[in-house]
């Protein structure tokens, strides 16, 4: 079945034996995927359907509004697409408010999980906390389960090379340009989607025309400045390319931009959406002594990108 999305919990009804997990699931990384996999197994065993209860805005945006530098790995649309890819049946996007944050753990279980969702089984990740001041824990759930008639299961911590996966660590990797580490934790490509807008057209004067990408979601994480090997999806077709994030110091750029040179591509695509999949970071952004030096560097970047893309599996 395809993923059903609910923006109001009252619309969630008549679901057979809901097998539920809950959390923000930013990134839908390998740790999240392990929870989803177990969720699907339990749903098959209990002849039920999988349900993810997530929250928007992100709780940190509501509880710490002064901390306005929060960046998220996924936009809402990206998260929905990933959850559908990994086989979730139902997604409830619950509005996170200060009032909601004040629910005690037993109120959350009774009012949301039991009365509203009719939870049959709850599957949670390692060290999961919920309710006011994060007071609720797996130990609480083991008490509440028999009281309210649902089963509870906790997934152990998921490690890669002895490093616990977390959305925070993935964000840090991307913010430092370490795309390979981020992707190894995510278990899928990291991408950004934006609208193509007109730029200064300097790239085309030296043989490397670029599409300027504007990402409208202000909370979407943009990786560190630098030059990257990427793949570009436009209207269902995939292309290789190389991408620059930064201020274009060689031409005295004043603003941070995202510009992609799409290989073997000569269409005018202003106002179209394009999705960029990050493969590898090539180098830092550099201020060259003029356009000829920049052009020579771009030739090397292209050569390296072609080599990297040839060794990269298809998306």
| Dominant shape | elongated
Mean pLDDT, all residues: 92
Helix content estimate = 25-40%
CATH superfamily of the largest domain: HUPs
Give start-end ranges of low-pLDDT stretches.
Answer: none
- The number of helical runs is 10
The value of Rg in angstroms is: 22 Å
What's the story with the biggest beta sheet? 6 strands, parallel
Q: How would you describe the overall organization of this protein?
A:
With 315 residues, the protein is an alpha/beta fold. It has 2 domains: 4-163, HUPs (Rossmann fold), CATH 3.40.50; 189-310, Elongation Factor Tu (Ef-tu), domain 3. It contains 10 helices and 14 strands. A 6-stranded parallel beta sheet has the order 1-4-3-2-5-6. Strands 9-10-13-12-11-14 form a 6-stranded antiparallel barrel. A two-stranded antiparallel sheet has the order 7-8. Helix 6 links the parallel strand 5 (121-124) and strand 6. Helix 5 (105-116) packs across helix 6 (138-148) and helix 7 runs antiparallel to helix 8 (179-186). It is elongated, with a radius of gyration of 22 Å. The two termini are 23 Å apart. The relative contact order is 0.12. The model has no long low-confidence stretch (mean pLDDT 92).
Describe the protein's topology.
Blueprint: E1 4-6, E2 18-22, H1 30-45, E3 49-56, H2 59-63, H3 76-85, E4 90-95, H4 98-101, H5 105-116, E5 121-124, H6 138-148, E6 151-154, E7 159-160, E8 163-164, H7 167-175, H8 179-186, E9 190-197, H9 202-205, E10 211-214, E11 226-234, E12 237-246, E13 257-262, E14 273-283, H10 291-310
Parallel strand pairs: 1-4, 2-3, 2-5, 3-4, 5-6
Antiparallel strand pairs: 7-8, 9-10, 9-14, 10-13, 11-12, 11-14, 12-13
Helix pairs in contact: 5-6, 7-8
